[in-house]
From TrEMBL:
<dbReference type="InterPro" id="IPR003661">
    <property type="entry name" value="HisK_dim/P_dom"/>
</dbReference>
<keyword id="KW-0418">Kinase</keyword>
<dbReference type="GO" id="GO:0000155">
    <property type="term" value="F:phosphorelay sensor kinase activity"/>
</dbReference>
<dbReference type="InterPro" id="IPR036890">
    <property type="entry name" value="HATPase_C_sf"/>
</dbReference>
<dbReference type="InterPro" id="IPR004358">
    <property type="entry name" value="Sig_transdc_His_kin-like_C"/>
</dbReference>
<feature type="domain" description="Histidine kinase">
    <location>
        <begin position="359"/>
        <end position="568"/>
    </location>
</feature>
<dbReference type="GO" id="GO:0005524">
    <property type="term" value="F:ATP binding"/>
</dbReference>
<keyword id="KW-0902">Two-component regulatory system</keyword>
<keyword id="KW-0597">Phosphoprotein</keyword>
<dbReference type="InterPro" id="IPR003594">
    <property type="entry name" value="HATPase_dom"/>
</dbReference>
<protein>
    <recommendedName>
        <fullName>histidine kinase</fullName>
        <ecNumber>2.7.13.3</ecNumber>
    </recommendedName>
</protein>
<dbReference type="InterPro" id="IPR036097">
    <property type="entry name" value="HisK_dim/P_sf"/>
</dbReference>
<dbReference type="Pfam" id="PF02518">
    <property type="entry name" value="HATPase_c"/>
</dbReference>
<dbReference type="InterPro" id="IPR005467">
    <property type="entry name" value="His_kinase_dom"/>
</dbReference>
<dbReference type="Pfam" id="PF00512">
    <property type="entry name" value="HisKA"/>
</dbReference>
<keyword id="KW-0808">Transferase</keyword>
<keyword id="KW-0547">Nucleotide-binding</keyword>
Length: 572
């Protein structure tokens, strides 16, 4: 059966009118490609055009994009019930074919593949001159190239149109009718021409959609760059501004919400809730995961490239996460630079202070010794009035305090190097606490000792190590103004011994802990601390080749561990 002859309906007037109608159909299809609607809506619009123009009973469209297969079905009896499905290579074995009904034969599917790839001579039966397929009676199998091909379905006649999707991918449109012989050959040739226009429209729509998504992506990234350039703005304000810019960059912006989780803190758009579908990208800073960016849809939408999301949106969310990571790296590098510059300036100031402290301490030592000596001599004189005795005792106490401050300054300035002898740390703790127990009792502090047995002697300066113990204990006492528990322990671990001072005081924040060994840093009110105690202790321990480890949390007390090497006297 062939359809090559001229039809009597092709009279010049009728032919021109028919051509004009088909041209109008082509123009409507091209205009639809410019509307910017999602793929499924666009395909539905095209199928409605074919359904209304041909007056047939059903239009089916199949598109092979290589890794995905789209199938749409629109029936005249239920035009609102548009069937649109997407299959992937993982969902079916038909790598090059066109998935259709479940009961569709492999032979028919292979026939469609060969048809789209132009493997049939258009001079064969059932073909029009421009390659469309006309099936006047679907109840009978078609015999093509010696093969019997049966078309599945309930319909009686059909026209099969092919169109290009890309250079090597194609699509098929089925126009189906319940009437036998419904389609005419000359009309099917026109439909095939319109199908080619559809291929152009699809390519145009893809290009426009890619351009729109690229514009949205670049606009979003430009806005983020503008936000990130504001160095004076706080991080919380920056990330909240970033998260507000994300939903408009997604296809379904009206149902999109976004959030950023960074270091445990969450920034989200207003009314954010975990949606039915989400897209997420991890935030990495120096190759370490610190959080994520997430965009969610609170309503269901048709499946696209990644669920209801586009592949361009995957690229965008990855770029956003990457830009956030770069911004954090840049901000932290700037903060580290500022911190190092501050340390450098501070070290320079400390060097100057150290030189001044050494000179001042040396100049004050002699007159202070005279004041203390003469005051003590005056106290030994007989018949001194009681009031004078009290005043002289105040002088002695003030001079002793001044001498202690000068000693700290000399230690801080490294004027006095360690004078190492054999020291037993347990004995040093026992002797040192003799003068501190009364102060602990007065402050309501319970003292407990846990001293290791058979602790070896170390080479150390006993005066300086005593100073370390006193400074750590005094620091613990000041941390427990309402009383508490003070535990002092010694421990041997391999080639080191440890002196541990642990309190149940207020504890410290990470910010305070980072500065406790900085000279003159103190959290005490003015006049109640020099800020040198822990700095001096740190300097002494470092001069002995040891370290001080600190563990502390607000409300959970503090633990200072002085770690010293076990070295015999003379092996320095």
């Amino acid at each position: 059966m062939t359809y090559k002859g001229k039809d009597h309906s092709r009279r010049s007037g009728y032919g021109r009118k028919l051509a004009e109608e088909f041209c109008a159909l082509s123009r409507r299809i091209l205009r639809a490609a410019n509307l910017g609607v999602p793929r499924n809506e666009f395909l539905k619009m095209i199928m409605e055009e074919f359904l209304n123009f041909s007056k047939c009973d059903e239009v089916e469209m199949r598109i092979n994009e290589g890794i995905r297969y789209y199938r749409g079905v629109l029936n005249r009896s239920s035009p609102d019930n548009f069937l649109f499905t997407i299959a992937t290579r993982n969902d079916c074995d038909l790598v090059e074919n066109f998935p259709g009904e479940d009961n569709e034969s492999v032979e028919f599917n292979e026939f469609l593949r060969d048809l789209t790839q132009g493997r049939y001579d258009t001079r064969l039966p059932y073909f029009t001159t421009n390659g469309a397929l006309l099936i006047p009676d679907m109840s009978e199998p078609m015999k093509i190239n010696g093969k019997l091909i049966r078309v599945p379905g309930q319909y009686r006649s059909a026209a099969v149109l092919t169109f290009p999707v890309s250079e090597d991918r194609h699509g098929i449109i089925f126009l189906k009718s319940l009437e036998c012989g419904y389609f005419q050959a000359y009309e099917v040739e026109f439909y095939q021409g319109v199908a080619q226009t559809l291929g152009v429209a699809l390519a145009d729509r893809r290009a426009q959609a890619a351009l729109r998504e690229r514009i949205k992506e670049l606009t979003c990234l430009y806005e983020l760059d503008r936000i990130f350039s504001k160095d004076e703005v706080e991080l919380d304000e920056i990330f909240q501004a970033v998260v507000e810019k994300l939903p408009p960059a997604w296809l379904y912006s009206d149902i999109a919400s976004a959030c950023i989780k960074l270091d445990g803190k969450v920034y989200a758009t207003q009314g954010y809730v975990e949606g039915l579908h989400s897209q997420m990208a991890k935030i990495r800073v120096h190759n370490r995961e610190r959080g994520f960016v997430k965009v969610t849809y609170r309503e269901t939408r048709p499946v696209l490239d990644e669920g209801p999301f586009l592949k361009e949106e995957r690229n965008l969310i990855e770029a956003v996460a990457r830009e956030i990571g770069i911004f954090i790296e840049r901000r932290e590098a700037k903060q580290e630079k500022a911190r190092l510059e501050h340390q450098l300036r501070h070290a320079d100031r400390l060097a100057t202070i150290g030189q001044l402290a050494a000179g001042v301490a040396h100049e004050l030592n002699e007159p202070l010794a005279n004041i203390l000596g003469f005051a003590q001599l005056v106290l030994k004189l007989p018949e001194i009035p009681k009031q004078a005795v009290k005043d002289i005792e105040r002088i002695v106490r003030a001079a002793l305090h001044a001498r202690e401050v000068i000693n700290k300054l000399m230690l801080f300035a490294r004027v006095r190097p360690p004078q190492q002898v054999a020291v037993n740390l347990n004995s040093l703790v026992t002797d040192g606490l003799y003068f501190l127990r009364s102060r602990c009792a007065k402050a309501g502090i319970e003292v407990s000792l846990d001293l290791a047995q058979d602790l070896p002697e170390i080479a150390a300066d006993p005066t300086q190590m005593h100073q370390v113990l006193v400074n750590l204990v005094v620091n613990a006492i000041q941390a427990m103004p309402s009383g508490g528990k003070l535990k002092i322990a010694t421990v041997r671990k391999d080639a080191v011994i440890s002196l541990i001072v642990e309190d149940t005081g207020a504890g410290m924040t990470e910010e305070v802990k980072a500065q406790i060994f900085v000279p003159f840093f103190t959290t005490k009110p003015v006049g109640e601390g020099t800020g040198l105690g822990l700095s001096v202790a740190h300097g002494i321990v470092s001069a002995h080749g040891g370290t001080i480890n600190v563990e502390s949390e607000p409300g959970k007390g503090s633990r200072f561990e002085v770690v010293l090497p076990i070295r015999p006297l003379g092996n320095r």
